[in-house]
Amino acid sequence: MSTNRFFVEESSIEGNFVRLNAEQAHQICHVLRLEPGAALVVLDNAGFEYDVRLQEANSRQANGLITGKRLASGEPRRQITLFQSLLARDKFERVLQKGTEVGVSRFVPVQTDRSLMRAKQIDAKKITRWRRILQEAAEQSHRGRIPEIGQALALADALARFGQYDRVLIGALCDGSPTLREALVKDGRTPASVAILIGPEGGFTEQEVALAEEKGAVTIGLGPRILRTETAAMVLPALVLYELGEMEP
Q1: Exposed / middle / buried, residue 38 (Cβ in 10 Å: 0-12, 13-18, 19+)
Q2: Contacts of 48 (CB under 8 A, 6+ apart)
Q3: pLDDT for 149
Q4: 224 in a domain, yes or no?
């Protein structure tokens, strides 16, 4: 059975001692029903994981003794940023969860012409919920860092940031597009950072695709079958990481 994993603040680790927060203490005590002596793994969100032996757990607090430290093995070396067009709540949350499992490092919500949700609908409560989803998915999938969630952007503002990345890909229906491998490899070199832009349920408009291409994005088709946007948002990052050698056991 897999050892339970918890992200903690770096300040919660002092020497060989770690404190978990009240919410985690409740989960350890009342949900998982772990007792002193149980093994845990805690992560500092800086790429390290720690073996911990639980010392105390009650409804208010939990702490443990660190018995080992190592680099987290589940964190990809290449940075994938997913610029995801805003979707209905359940679909967008599924993209966050599954994208985290695949290996996306950062998510940026984007408002496009056909987005069903608008950026002004994103409030502090929603961001808190999204961060919780990201943390739980990162713990479950053995990530070493919790992916970031960026501020929602208009498409034009998202396009203005594409110069920060080694490669930019846009998933869209197209004919004659390069293969994914051709798009990723330039002069025999592979990128350290890749931005991926995925459209809304109705797809990008032709003008939006043209604007993205003007900013250096390469349009990538995903085969002869039509994928839902939330499916494309999982498939394209997974294929990119596979091509970059990040899906090896």
Answers
A1: middle
A2: 69, 70, 71, 72, 144
A3: 96
A4: yes
State the DSSP code for 31: I
Could you tell me the end-to-end alpha-carbon distance of the chain, in angstroms, rounded to an integer?
Answer: 19
The pTM of the full predicted model, rounded to 2 decimals, is 0.92
Indicate if the pLDDT at residue 176 is higher than 90: no
- Looking at the fold, whether 115 and 56 belong to one and the same domain comes out as no
pLDDT of residue 175: 67
Encode pLDDT of 102-128 as tens digits: 999 999 999 999 887 787 788 899 999
pLDDT value, residue 80 = 97
Q: Are residues 234 and 137 in the same domain?
A: yes
Q: Are residues 33 and 62 in the same domain?
A: yes
139-164 burial, b at 16+ Cβ within 10 Å, e below that, comes to beebbbbbbebeebbebeebbebbee
Residues 111 and 64 in one domain: no
Pairing, β 79-85 against β 106-111: parallel
Whether residues 152 and 223 share a domain: the answer is yes
- In degrees, rounded to 5, the angle at the alpha carbon of residue 15 between the alpha carbons of residues 43 and 50 is 25
Domains in the chain, number: 2
Please count the helices (runs of H) and the strands (runs of E) in the chain.
7, 13
Give residue 121's domain range.
79-243
Residues 17, 106, single domain; the answer is: no
Instruction: Give pLDDT tens digits for 223-239.
Output: 778 889 999 999 999 99
